[in-house]
Amino acid sequence: MKKLFLIAAMAVATLAVNAQSKMKAGTWSIQPKAGATITSITNLNGYETDDANVYVGGTIGGEVEYQIDNRFSVAAGVGYIMQGKQWADVSFGGTKVEDNKIELGYINVPIVANFYAFKGLAFKAGVQFAFLTNAKDKYTITNGGSENSVSRDVKDACNTFDFSIPIGVSYEFDNHIVIDARYNIGVTKVNKDSYPGAKDCHNSVFLATVGYKFKL
Fold it and tell me: What DSSP string runs through 87-100?
């Protein structure tokens, strides 16, 4: 057991010594990026069903990074993200409800600290501030051969500010292309307390992006 502990400690120490970013200490970089999101909203029920699927959307934005030393950097970004929740299709009493979903749009402002475990590979954590731009409740209902698509604006039922904790990992290739995967843990409530039957609903967001890092 002691040998295993010693080997593990030596491995961690070796990573710490060799850890480094591809950017030099004291330099700035900017990174435009775009990607996909897989999201949900906790404790939010749909039209006559709790059987929920994830909502798939997209994101686009960029971030500026300052390299403190070979192992640590700080990055701040801004971007637009599509997220929400979708439910399975349901049928009852001759009525069918399809494509039932909540769509939310946010302007996100993440601030993260990066630790480079070894060259190019960074683990990250931080805080994120988000501002709601749009919120729609959508579904298609079919009854007696008649189909009706519904789209309701529910922005007034949602809080316009959202706070979350992003954690993730990224890797920068030698050609400065960066792949980044993050999970945003929602802290504040999506819905207002005044909303009928309101529960503590929070955003749950996974996003993966591809970007290119330019040295400033």
Answer: E--EEETTEEEEEE
Reference 93, options 142, 52, 58; nearest CA is: 142
Please compute, for residue 93, the number of CA atoms within 13 A of its CA located in the half-sphere on the CB side: 2
* C-alpha span between 182 and 125 (Å, rounded): 9
The full length of the chain comes to 216
- What does the pLDDT look like over 131-189, one tens digit per residue? 999 999 998 999 877 889 999 999 998 999 999 999 999 999 999 999 999 999 999 99
The answer to pTM > 0.70 is yes
Name the CA dihedral angle for 75, 76, 82, 85, rounded to a multiple of 10 degrees: 70
DSSP letters, 155-189, are: GGGB-SEEEEEEEEEEEE-TTSEEEEEEEEEE-S-
Task: Point out which residues pair with 74 in neighbouring strands.
Answer: 66, 113
Residues 6+ apart with CB under 8 A from 161: 129, 130, 131, 132, 188
